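I am writing to request your help with a piece of structural work I have in hand. Here, with my thanks, is the record as I have it:
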Amino acid sequence: MKQILKWSAIVGAGLVALVILALLLIPMFVDVAKFKPLVEAQVSKATGRPFAVGNDVKLSLFPWAGLTFSDLRLGNPPEFAEKDFVAVKSLDVQFKLVPLIFRDIQVRRFILNEPRIVLLKNDQGRVNWEIGPPKAAAQPGTAAPGRLELPFKDLAVGEFAVTRGSAVWIDQTRKVRQQATEIELRLKDVTLDQPVKIFFTGRLENRLLSLTGTVGPLGKQIGQDPIGLNISLAALEELKMKVTGQVENPLANPQVDLAIDVTEFSPRRLLAALNQPLPITTADTKALSRMAFSGRVKADQNNLAISDGKLKLDDSVSRLTLNIVNFKHPDLTVDLALDQIDADRYLPPPNSPVKNEIRPAAKPKAEGAKTASSPASNPVRWPLASVDGRLQAGKMIINQKKIELARTEIGPVI
């Protein structure tokens, strides 16, 4: 019996050694580059875009199965000036082979090195991220609307990272170009049944952006259960925000229920960092220097509701409740209680040709109709169907006159 066990152990060890040796030697004799044209053709067919992979392609099978690609490029259609939509210097993936048989994806690492994405809107208003082959009609037996049936049973990713990334936004209709650089994204504990930890940093126009927090769990049927959010955002060395809550029905009709807390920041400095002008011209050059907000926000694709809102603007603090129904032709209901405000600070300087106006949306004009000229202005256009509100202010200053405003009904205005 001892001899049988001894020789069984020797044979078993020999078989294991042969398998390991085969896994080490197979990549040396398999020319992975021969499959490169097939991969390029399949990706091009799926996306409707030119796709190319560099010649440096590597395969490994032990101790982890792995693929390494270099110089990946997904192109743009010919009507866009930029040649590449996405370019990646290298992609490194390591995963376990045997669990794939049981539709269990176990990834040790997934690393994108130096990706660059270019988002374009050309002068005809077409965007480069929506172009592709026609979508096939849904077939019977597919997942129900609002739910995504995943092609695998389970997912576990040890390390997911995007390093030294960059993104460019080009809007040729408005002659705008913005760039984000030094993008670093890392995800930890990536599974379907636990929240995913997110760590993101980058620079927008050379100003720091950072985001940390958790998202999820996503669940094995994405869209079936609410997705939790717990995110902290810091932007442009000026804005800090905390968002907690959840997203429901994210695929068919996204609905958010969020608690938002924006710490005090300067709208003037924030807009300056974005190279954007103030929306109004103010008599007081220090107006719009301090703002903070906290409240609960519920929204879907057509409606927005803010409750328990607290808004701080310069020296004023207000309590806010707001409802907007139907974004396309909004009905606005607002309840605003101010402790104090000096409205003169937000008016144009005396004798200024500039007027800060709020106008209804312009009605379509008949062909050949002329538009009357008007003095210089900063109009805020919003196609409101109706306005209904209540306003209360402890102390107001308008045209250098002090006013105490009790609770006052505004509207409905149609």
